[in-house]
Amino acid sequence: MSYTVTTGATSVDCGPDQPLLDAFLRSGVWMPNSCNQGTCGTCKIEVRSGSIDHRTSPENTLPQHERVAGFALACQATPCSDITIDPPIAEEPTSTHVLHDFVATVSEVRDIAADTRRVLLTLDEPLTFSAGQYVDVTVPGTSTTRQYSLANPPTEPKLLELHVRRQPGGVASEWLFGSIDVGDRIEMTGPYGDFTFDEENTGPMALLGGGTGLAPLKGIVRHALALDPDREILLYHGVRTCADVYDADYFRELESRNSGFRYVTCVSRENGGDREGYVTDAFVEDVASAKEFTGYICGSEKFVEASVKSFKRRRMSPRRIRREKFTAAG
Ligand code: FES
């Protein structure tokens, strides 16, 4: 059994237990989305006719007065009848890749920094995605899923690279830092998210990543440099201690091959790295004007907010700032 969900001239089928967003993305119809957990509000829609179940939509993202006014979170709400909606306002689709379920094989698990691992996954079929997007990984033997950004570029669609950080006691961490083994088969869904490489702007780029927030930035940097090896790209990686730095050799090697690429590590809680302190301060010190730049930020909520301020202080247009907030689910 399924219901029909219509927006404008487009209709998709949606099961009674299926979130509206899931139905659109699986049909290859773009709808803005970011967290897919009900926390960011990116997918907020207006229901014009029919009825829905808000399910676990959080009150702080979708307050009561908005529910009464007909708003809903497409990543949480399910249909109770055929419905018509007005989708969120999006300037343009950032990804039109069809969402789907797939199975990957673990091909490598490696410790790369303190409490940080790289997991490489081989796919039977290539995954079509945009640089910077993420996948949902199901913890084997459970119904628990966790989101991980892809650190590989879309030109490597059959070898996915994930960077994972241990969260003590977390069910996914217990697995990823415990029983996971090469050859394991893992169920996944993707690609998700609107944190993607901006193909339209070909000028300089600045990327600020906190901890494993480096992952999607690595995919974006690799993709951007493959398209234009001379492009001016500044990558700042912020960590707490020197033991948290990873992939430095990789990025140094990229620096040696691409004259416009600059890589800076910032260590905030001890002496070390290229700079002591925060990436946000280093960026403001280094760049007099970011007016022509496109910006990418990935990290904790605090990190993202501070980074947006730094970009704006250097006059980067808010329209050119893309951001991805991490949640520390273990
Ligand atoms: Fe639905 Fe974030 S609230 S994508």
UniProtKB/TrEMBL annotation:
The keyword Membrane is assigned to this record: no
Domain of life: Bacteria
Record's keyword terms, sorted: 2Fe-2S, Iron, Iron-sulfur, Metal-binding
Keyword Transit peptide: no
Positions of the 2Fe-2S ferredoxin-type domain: 1-91
Residues in FAD-binding FR-type domain copies: 99-198
Cofactors that this protein relies on: FAD
Stated name of the protein: FAD-binding oxidoreductase
Organism expressing this protein natively: Rhodococcus artemisiae
Lineage start: Bacteria, Bacillati, Actinomycetota, Actinomycetes, Mycobacteriales
